[in-house]
Amino acid sequence: MARVEQIERELDGPDEAVSSLTTKALMRRRMLRHKGFLFGATVLFSLVFLAIFAPLIAPFDPLDQSLARRLLPPVWSEGGVWDHLLGTDHLGRDYLSRLLYGARISLMVGIGAATVGLLIGVTLGVCAGYFGGWIDQVVSYLLTCQLALPGLLLAMSLVFLIGPSVFVVICVIGVLHWTYYLVVTRTATMQIKQLDYISSARAIGSSNSQIIFYEILPNLLNQIIVIFTLEIGIAILAEAALSFLGVGIQAPTPSWGLMIAEGKTAMFYRPWLVILPGIAIFMLVISTNLMGDGLRDVTAPENRN
Amino acid sequence: MINYALKRGALALLVAFTVSLATFFLLNFSTDPAEVIAGEDAEPEVVEVIREQYGFNRPLIVQYGSWLKGLSQGDFGESYYWRRPVLDLVIEHAPVTIQLALMAVFVTIVVALPLAIFAAMKPNSIVDRMALSTAVAAQAIPNFWLGLLFIILFAVTFPIFPVSGDSSFAHFIMPAIVLGTSSVPAVMRLARTGLLDVLSSDYIRTARSKGYRGTTLLVRHALRNAMLPVVSVMAIQLGHKLGGSVVVESVFALNGLGRLALDSILGSDVPTVQMLVFVFALIFVLLTFLSDILNAWIDPRMRLR
Amino acid sequence: MIMEADTEKPGAENTVADVKQNPLLKIENLEVDIPTANGTLHAVRDVSLTLNRGEALGIVGESGSGKSMSALALLGLLPAKAQRRASTLRLGRHDLLSMSDGEIAKKVSGDRITMIFQEPMTSLNPVYSIGRQLTETMTLHGKSSEAQARERAIYLLGKVGLSAAESRLAQYPHQLSGGQRQRVMIAMALMNEPELIIADEPTTALDVTVQAQILRLLGDLQREFNMAMILISHDLGVISRTVDKVAVMYAGQLIETGTVKEVLDQPRHPYTRGLLDCIPEPGKQKSARLGTIRGLVPSLIGETKGCAFANRCSMVRDDCLDQSPPLKVEEGEGSSPDHSSAFRSFRCVLPADWVSDQPRPAEETSNLVNLSLESGVGQQEAVPLIEAKGVSRRFSIRRSLFSRTETLTAVDDVSLSLSKGDVLALVGESGCGKSTLAKMLLGLDAPSNGEILFEGAPLSGINPLERTRRIQPVFQDPYSSLNPRKTIGEIIIRPLNVHNFGEVKDRQKEVERTMEMVGLPRRLFHSFPNQISGGQRQRVAIARAIIMRPEILICDEPTSALDVSVQAQILNLLQELRQELGLTYLLITHDLSVVEYMATKIAVMYLGQIVELAEKEKIFSDAAHPYTNVLLQSLLTMQPGQKIPDTGLGAVYSNPLDLPKGCRFHPRCPEAINECRLKEPELGSLYVRCLRHPLKSNDVTIKNETNFLEY
Lengths: 305, 305, 711
Description:
heterotrimer, B: 2 domains, 0% strand, C: alpha/beta, Rossmann fold, 23 strands
């Protein structure tokens, strides 16, 4: 009967624990198994590293012109030289250096605009979802109006009319890209608000701000991070489009979109001038998207589809 | 049902005017039209005279009122840049953009919907994985860059399509494909998710217990339900196509509304930009209004509202 | 019950000899495996069953026992990745094992076997009309023309008790109530005259009164059409009233089978016995504590050794741990004469009569023998602890920005009071306003009319922190009442932090003391809610509610989301805490058996009003209001062989936005007279809101008076 007694001892508590893993441990395990997430995170962090240390890594000053060395092809093409690994542009500036510095602009705009959008969208979304009533109706109306705005057109007009600069680009793109945050946080807050733990919090005397900051926001955090990551990609693409059209970042600042526009004139005989910055944008955006999608899978596998 | 339509219609109009009001203020805060008309290096006195003459010294809300008044009398204002009535400009440029947008939406539907259905029928299969990875990749490609690659590939290396211009139907094929692909990921993902949700619902289980399987199940019980979100998103996408054609029109040198918008912005032509934003917003609310009505027709639950 | 099917339907394809020898359904060694990220889940293990024509079988078990999976496996409706194995799977002449999924869909599913599911609200397709969904069942199998199908649909809609059957065809599901939708589901299941109908928890999502009606209907139709039926349920009361034979499932295995009488009266397996002891049964419960089953259902992932129930069994022996006990078959009432389908069986090493001969474990383990369940003695004169006086709550409902506002009266002129030590049960169907009333008593919502007094002072005038310290809630769903991102310790300590009680160090100690009180092991302090079981979660919720030592606990359906064995544990805990801390309870529930076990007073609500309020004993022995009577009759206690009574309740569902004139209950009342249509009854001094009540009580005036004198 010794083993039976052992069972009796183990069953001291009313019932046993169901899972031995904490939420965080589960997440860490899922992250390390998610290929898309790992790839996205690796590429993104390498690009961030390159952007931060661009002054140390770049072989040339991105603004240094050398008319004697104009339009050199990359080193693997015929006529390429080792000095300029990725060739030079129409003013003889080193393309690799410009690309490295361009990463800074893209990342700055991406992260900056995504943050501006986050502040607007999450504030409105949580307020609308939590307080409901007329606040919700006003916010929903704002959302409908925002969706009806031709975003790119308005962004172009505002950036150009105010006067293009990195700061203006960040603010305008951010101010026009908060709907995704709003929709998700509003719905999630409305759902959480129905749950009994919010009623419990109210029944123990928590104030509205205690409920929002202690009970609701921690539960929105994962979703907000996911949207933030995806919005970085969207903002980077928007900046590239603005700069490409000539109403965003202005020459001679190295921006990838602008570099494509400058390369366009020579693209039929120097296609690399267009292809390389495009690949750079693609890699950066796909890495943020993969990371965002991966984070969603990892934090909320039930929302996978 | 008619009640519902009337209510939605009224809301749509309200949104369009709110948007025009917001645009009016934003644009007039960003720039001083008097200075634009006077030109650079103009004497302050000249600017002041212009301000007086055009009524720019009135409060903004009064100016907006007179803009609205003009609108109600069919006076859409006059372009500072082209010195022509804005209405003529819009009518002149609209056909190109409308044709482009319709073709692009056709491309989106033809690519996204079958892909979504195949993917949802066999989740996690090879088709599904491929479709999802393609979507992730397609979302990361800047579409102006894709346009340039298309030109390099299909107009120069393999001269299948004309490089640029809008004189024949063939001119529209590449731009429509480029513009259409940009919404494929969003529509495909949404349709796939919608269909998966429907397929995992209780009523599909009921239908399966009745003996429905495979295509019959899909056609007789799932598609109509899964259509609902797709109809809404297609309307939104068509609206965005019109507003987002700026980039593609610029790449392929199509002389549509996007081109007009870019030129007006570069010329700081506030009345034209203001009008274009309003027109795009109006088209957008009209489309979402139509999709609401269509959804109410599909879903009996919505008719009650 | 005669098990041989000699009432063969004309037109069926089986020969008479075939029928005599073979049961309708034969399942042998059915296994269902579901691959998961953590290994293979053995959802169904070695299930063998036989079912004769016209016979009703109940499959009973707690959540996750594999009861639904076994049924779904028959029709190929398992989850996509699941694998099914069996040595025999046969329905009449159809060998389901050798048929492809397509063939089953064509010939069996929806035709020979039909199903009724749990969720009537979501089981019908919202975008198609009722008529289309009914007729397609026939036309899909090429049984008939559209017109014939339509005719049959109208006939069956009448059969299942839906009025104006023909006009129903054009309606959409959202226009029907839950009970009506389930009737449509039943009609749909009957369209093709199936041989077997599988009902998977068909009434779990419905109100008790509707449950009784639907089950009665289902049983009548099953006998009338001579179909076999499998009824899957977690509710032993339901099972005992509706089926002939029962199979008990545990951890994917059949652990006991037999006729309802055999299994429920003479359980052979310790698990069956345990389940029976857990259920609070009116009149049957002698000791104050309910029996419980300790521990948790074992994980079904991977290989298991020994008896699946060994870790929870109170009669466990050493050899239980080593080998899985074989299924012992014995001759029983339900066995067919040729012995091929002997139905009395159980899976336990103990001798046949051992289990049923054991004394009730509750009597030996109870440490609260003299638990007093009387209401607060001698407190009647004093000021009640909390009191509602003519409380109403109206909501303005506006469906959209433009539509006009309608008024929903959720609570209408409710008066009640709780004295110290009371357990007042608030009983009523969903939507009757009981949760709104609870919210107002908690102070989370304010009445539109009337007032709530706490110790004689208006509740709204009391400082919110003071109020929340003294009145605390316990909610229904332990999965949504705990914030998933906080640890158990953080959740329980939170009230102390919000109220800034004492030193931080002392708070920690207080949490540990409270955890011990509610029976939570200390090691769970740093666990997250997703790591603990449903019962433990409810203990955490209770710990959070009592940590500030409140005086009143308002429990909103505290056990209805839990399995019976866990429900018993929580009910025991609530009783113990009431003694230890001198708590007063307001218990909101739809489950009259819980009420019988817990309450001292009962208030019955219908459409926002209290229709009857009395001592528990009075309600259970001599209920005055017709609605209370209907509720009591709808309570399906475990009585094998006894049928479900006809409550006489009308199938009219009143719209809360458009209340009926006169007495609110008259459209459904079995005893309504003409006067009820015209005049709204008052809640009289006897706390019964019924026009007919004075007449009734006149008949027994003398008896009442003597009773009164005795008081």
